[in-house]
Amino acid sequence: MIEELADRYGTPLYVYDGDVLREGYRRLRDLLHPKVDLFYSAKANPNISVCALLRSLGAGLEVSSLAELTTALRAGAKPADIIFLGPGKSPEELRDCVEHGIHAVVCESLEELSTLDSLGSVDAMLRVNPAFSGKGSRLSMGGKPRQFGIDEEALLEAGTELRELKRVRVTGIHAYLGTRILDAEDIVHNTRGVLEMAGRLHAELGIPLDTVDIGGGLGVPYFDNEKDLDLEATTAGINAAVAGFTAAHPRTRLIMELGRYLVGWAGTYVIRARYVKQSRGEWFVVADGGTNHHMAAVGIGSFVKRNFPIRALSHPDRPADRTYTVTGPLCTPNDVVGKQIPLPEVRPGDLLGVERSGAYGPSASPVNFLSHGHPAEVLVLDGTAHLVRDRDTAADLLAKQHLIPL
Fold first, then answer.
1. Which helix (H) or strand (E) holds 262?
2. What is the pLDDT of residues 336-380, one digit of tens each?
3. Is residue 22 situated within a structural domain?
4. Which of 119, 219, 345, 393 is a Cys-bridge partner for 180, taking CB atoms 3.0 to 4.6 Å apart?
5. Which residues sit opposite 387 in a β-bridge?
6. Angle ∠(94,96,101) on CA atoms, nearest 5
7. Structural domain count, the chain
């Protein structure tokens, strides 16, 4: 089918397997404690059809911009199943949250909470930067100086500010300790820590616990020597922690927010080889798409370039008897999708697929570098391919520019 889709829609192309996405969601939902609501972090892949599919399965939506809020609503999410995060929300964003009556604005500073209080009546959760450090994250977001959230120790001294709120009702706690965690024990440790912190803040400050967001951070293995997360052990540990917490707080709505884990497995970035060449003994495939659509493939934050799984789509059954560095069309040496990848012999016109690419693809990449624009996106569901985003054209890219008279 990939060859057919590439011929029909062109390349570069993102293909999302809706059946994989649906099966992954349902498996997690079946294993997880029924008191825990799953929310999809739209930032991972904000395509409206991806959001709508997850919403149809029962997921709430976690959004972080006006466009994402609009996407969630148009995808069919009820306001009661939307939360809005972000450390630098604008007054316009806060006003829209008030007007739509979403479940909660997650405030990340006392100043933001005060601003929200001046705008109208709405429920708010407090994002807390816990005093303890989370475990296992490739990108830690708690226990250190961060732009995210309110330090737990500062919040414990903010009783006066909370009591002076006039229109905003603080309804719970949010914490997010990191991402790409692949060890079940670390995820369970972090979950227990967040729940214990929520109980502590409730006891010391009287913060209602209508909702507690325990974050997420479940990882997808991309690189060599990384193992799949043991989902059974992870959910068993989370469920035990949740059971203890809900015994003391039976009315609390618990939220786990996940982005990468829900969509990462379902995506393939499809590129076509334009040229195959040798340079000083090393083979290169120069493809029609590169890191302008898949910045994660650069391996930012790693001292050593590590590769996403890449496979030959045109000749999947041939032996991988040659190594290639796969690059894109950009005028920068950093445009390396994969380095020293074992593949069958690649010829111009062959298709390659970067797998596990459903999260943080185009939306987290410099798609307008060299004015190549956004690639097309296709969602395949129940055997039917749906074009869910058109490829940018030169006219699209120039439409919002203004030529001055000279």
1. helix 260-263
2. 999 999 999 999 999 999 999 999 999 999 999 999 999 999 999
3. no
4. 219
5. 378
6. 100
7. 2
Domain containing 345: what range?
2-12+265-398
Distance CA 3, CA 351 (A): 8
Question: H helices of 138-183, where?
Answer: 152-155, 159-163
- From 95, 114, 115, 97, select the one nearest 105 (Cα to Cα): 97
In a shared domain, residues 391 and 331:
yes
Structure token digits, residue 3: 């060859």
- Say whether the peptide bond before residue 12 is cis (omega within 30 degrees of 0): yes
Residue 163 belongs to some domain of the structure = yes
User: What number of CA atoms fall less than 13 Å from residue 155's CA on the CB side?
Assistant: 29
Q: Quick one: CA dihedral 86, 87, 92, 95, positive or negative?
A: positive
What DSSP string describes 245-265?
HHHH-TTPEEEEEESHHHHGG
pLDDT of residue 45 exceeding 80, the answer is yes
Task: Please spell the DSSP secondary structure of 284-305, one letter per residue.
Answer: EEEES--TTT-GGGG-TT-SS-
| 341: its two tokens | 């990848």
| 73 Cβ neighbours under 8 A, 6+ residues apart | 79, 82, 100
Contact 25, 262 (CB under 8 A): yes
Q: Which three-class secondary structure state does DSSP give residue 328?
A: coil
Query: How do 351-354 and 310-312 pair as beta strands?
Result: antiparallel
> How far is Cα 39 from Cα 32, in angstroms, rounded to an integer?
13
DSSP per position, 337-390: EEEEEEESPP-TT-EEEE-S-SSSSGGGS-TTGGG--PPEEEEEETTEEEEEEP
Q: Domain with 175 in it: what CATH number?
A: 3.20.20.10
The domain boundary, picked from 217, 238, 258, lies at 258
Element at 331 (helix H, strand E): none
Residues 164 and 146 in one domain: yes
For residues 365 and 377, the answer to whether their CB atoms sit within 8 Å is no
Q: Token pair for residue 156? A: 């414990």
Confidence of residue 107 (pLDDT cuts 50, 70, 90): very high
Q: Is the pLDDT of residue 21 over 50?
A: yes
pTM: 0.95
Q: Contact at 8 Å (CB) between 72 and 93?
A: no
Residues 101, 78: Cα–Cα separation, whole Å: 10
Which of 291, 342, 344 lies closest to 317 in space, CA to CA?
344
Collect all residues with Cβ–Cβ distance below 8 Å to 5 and sequence separation of at least 6: 13, 15, 270, 378, 380, 385
